[in-house]
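Fold Annotation — chain and its backbone
Next Lines — sequence and tokenised fold

***
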Amino acid sequence: MLSKKQRVAKRFFDLILVIISLMIFIIPMIIFVIMASFSSRSFGIFSQQRVGKDAKLFTLYKIKSMRPNKAKHHVTTANDMRVTPFGKFLRKSKMDELPQLFNVLKGDMSFVGPRPDVVGYADELKGDDRIILSVKPGITGSATIKFADEEIILAQQEDPLKYNDTVLWPQKIEMNKEYVQNWSLMKDIGYVLQTVFGFLK
């Protein structure tokens, strides 16, 4: 679990990075939201309740890439028919994640940390696994980088939800526990750089 000094350093890093990122991406973000509005024929911002630090719910924002779905635990795959044509570009480029910069600015999220899950996953962690909930969820992180092609992996499974719950989710738990237990600011910087360079490939 992070000390008070470590939490302050992490938040300071987040604020510096989010200010720089918003200066770079605010105009493209607005353009993408307008385009997504036309593509989905609805307002181009998607919002959803996710599990945050200490299992508290917060509203996560994305640029809308899909048509609405009412399923409680639907796992999105690369061949999901609900993804709009423009949404495919957004998801492949990860540009749909840009509004989460405001989640970081608000303090709901961090740049680096476990990905914020829908209800039914992180909030149901038990025992030592709940250490994951002691940090804010992140835009990127070790598990996010490793499973960058998660939608493609799930699309290849006969039962994507079962595969996610029994194979991917347990691996993410272990990686996220290791992240919290061995946190350092240099590691956060490293994960951000890996994410940027991965995007530029």
